Amino acid sequence: MKTDRSRQMLAEANQYLAGGVASSLRAAMKPTPLYAAGGKGARVYDVDGNEYIDYLLAYGPLILGHSHPLLNEKVYQAMQKGYTFGLQHEGEIALAKRLTEILPCADKVVFSGSGTEAVMMALRLARAYTGRQKVVRFHGHYHGWSDAIFTSFPSADMKSQAAGSAAGEAVPGTGGQSVNSLEDVILLPWNEPDVLERTLTERREEIAAVITEPIMCNSGCISPREGYLEAMRKLTEQYGIVLIFDEVITGFRLGLGGAHERFGITPDLMTMGKALAGGIALSAVAGKNEIMNLVAEGRVDHLGTLNGNTVSTAAAMAVLDELGRDNGAAYRQMERIAGQLAEGIRSLMKKYNVNGVVNQPGPVFHMMFTDQQEVAHFDQFGRRDAAKYGLFAELMLDEGILLRPNGLWYVSAVHGDKEAEETLKAVENVFAKRPE
Ligand code: PLP
Fold it and tell me: Which InterPro entries match (predicted)?
């Protein structure tokens, strides 16, 4: 695989762009961060002329793949009228209304630009609503990079877990983060109902919110244990604590109504981003009137110059139209292809005596090399062979498959049988070359 041009461009970027890449995570790609020339459907092309089937999907947003015709058309139409006004416009009402119709937890919504901002807003709402300060979050979950919640990078494609985080104490995840920023964060292991019950019971007077990914997508795509989210819902309700589902990954990916619809558990607030506008910057918080009305009452400020702009809201409407079409045909397709890939990889692991686990809750899944029988807890996730997977991802590039180096795969609505077949062939080639 040729990477000369990408390497030249990275050298040039390093002269002007701090770190060479636009988000620290992207530097982890081996053999070198790649420069995109374009994308179409499930495929992406780099500046050296390589073509890949794309399972990185821009870290999740490209649920309709690259350059989807409907998304292009709607964005183009919106742009003709103006990108953003700082005035109100019809598109923001239409999208807000649609979200309240499809998300069980949504009486009202607010818009923002990134998942990080949506989480910041949700925490602010929770504190204002309860008059309390502390926030419970969990090991292995990622809720964006704001000082208020960032404990450490979530997985080994970036850095190792910060030492304190692994030991149970929330410590800043990066240089420059305010040393006091996590004083109000209580970091707990996830999927442990007893620890949760004990903490919430003992500290209920202090705790404003529990924030959780409903499926631990950022560390192993680990599903909640039977009854765990139900217990979380029951306890938070009992103690007047705001339950926030961070659905920045699961929102619109596990179904139009996200993970909370799938599990039949309604959080008080939900954050969403990534897939919502199919690759255009847009995020949102949705929740029940009692909490969301704090904004209308002027008790909580919600700000942002580009919030709810015409382009992003038009993009989101196109995504929701496409995902909702033909009774959710897109979801059936994504589930089928993701299932085919996960099953195919598991069989190839058996065939080639490669020890590993694939956790596949839906059209996002995590592939890991490990001697363990299962990865159902963050500790088990920590014991996977991350370096071996990094090497696998690098070898897959040679086979024309673009993967995130940490093991997380995203499948879009335009990945089909042909892509799945080519991908499994590539996995087989890599396993056959490295039989250990
Ligand atoms: N929440 C979750 C669950 C995420 O996975 C992410 C990003 O990966 C975020 C929040 C932050 O979103 P963004 O990168 O758009 O700021």
Answer: Aminotrans_3, Aminotrans_3_PPA_site, PyrdxlP-dep_Trfase, PyrdxlP-dep_Trfase_major, PyrdxlP-dep_Trfase_small
